[in-house]
Amino acid sequence: MTSKTFTKTAPPEWLLAMWKEIDDKTFGKGFDCFADEAICNLGVADWHGREAIRNNLRQFIDRGFTALHDVVEFWDSPELKIFHGKVAMRFDDPGIAPVRPTMVHFFYMDENDRTKVKHWIGAVGPISF
To answer: Can you tell me the distance from the alpha carbon of 13 to that of 44, in angstroms, rounded to the nearest whole number?
Structure first.
């Protein structure tokens, strides 16, 4: 069993920059928060490497919706960051109503460089059954 102490705090700039890149559909420097060989598991996704994370998220977001991420709370420790938020999803198809599911993300930091995310695990929704 391992215990960790967390501090509830404002989200760090690197996290806000990453969400902004997704919200703005720019996918630029905000992804520099990831280590070169980072792993991302969002739902069933299993992406390996910063560029794979960037490119796969771009492809996912460009499939017909715009997202806007909001911070509800952020919990910090040196090794692990926990983000709880909401994501407003507006679809390109006007026949699909906007949704705002809850999301939770775990960011495990690189042991050799605590400024870089080594492993991102996240869950959003479900938005429907």
So the answer is: 27
Q: How many angstroms separate the CA atoms of 104 and 111, rounded?
A: 22
Confidence band for 43, pLDDT divided at 50, 70 and 90? confident
Segment among 4-13, 61-70, 79-88 with least mean pLDDT: 61-70
CB atoms near residue 75 (< 10 Å) = 16
Instruction: List phi, psi (to 5°) of 55.
Output: -70, -40
Nearest to 38 by CA among 116, 106, 112, 115: 116
Please name the residue that has the structure tokens 């996918």: 27
Residue 56: burial class (beta carbons within 10 Å; 0-12, 13-18, 19+): middle
